[in-house]
Recover the amino acids of this structure.
């Protein structure tokens, strides 16, 4: 294959966006299902549960940012990508893995916590902020994965 390194790099970007996005889509859907039940009983709580539903969607954004950073790094967006050795392509692929996997699993974990938070809002609406904090704790690991991936991508020299 002419530029196997470029293929590996693009695969890394795709994995970061795909897995994180897939986890976020599943997570937002899970919380949305829980929220819909509550809103059907009490429409006034829509805004409170919408905020909880949004939270697991951030991992998809982080994966997208990671993919964009790879595309910028390899100059794919300029139309003339750099030539990468297979080893360089594998380095980029490896740098994308923290965001890909942590993004996927943390989005689903955060969704479980946020869906439970919908129950908190149903019983005690004033405690919504506590439900958000509990859900945001899972987010910490997605942010750490994003930083890990970005720092590795930015540190690579071609």
């Amino acid at each position: 294959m002419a530029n196997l390194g470029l293929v590996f790099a693009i695969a890394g970007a795709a994995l970061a966006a795909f897995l994180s996005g897939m986890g976020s889509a599943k997570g937002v859907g899970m919380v949305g299902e829980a929220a819909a039940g509550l809103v059907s009983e009490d429409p006034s709580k829509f805004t409170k549960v919408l905020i909880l539903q949004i939270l697991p969607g951030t991992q998809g954004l982080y994966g997208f940012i990671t993919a964009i950073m790879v595309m910028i790094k390899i100059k794919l967006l300029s139309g003339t990508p750099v030539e990468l050795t297979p080893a360089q392509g594998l380095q980029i692929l490896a740098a994308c893995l923290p965001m890909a996997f942590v993004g996927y699993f943390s989005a689903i974990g955060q969704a479980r916590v946020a869906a439970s938070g919908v129950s908190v809002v149903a019983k005690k609406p004033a405690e919504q902020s506590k439900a958000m904090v509990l859900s945001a704790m899972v987010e910490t690991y997605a942010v750490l994965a994003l930083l890990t991936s970005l720092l590795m991508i930015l540190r690579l020299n071609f």
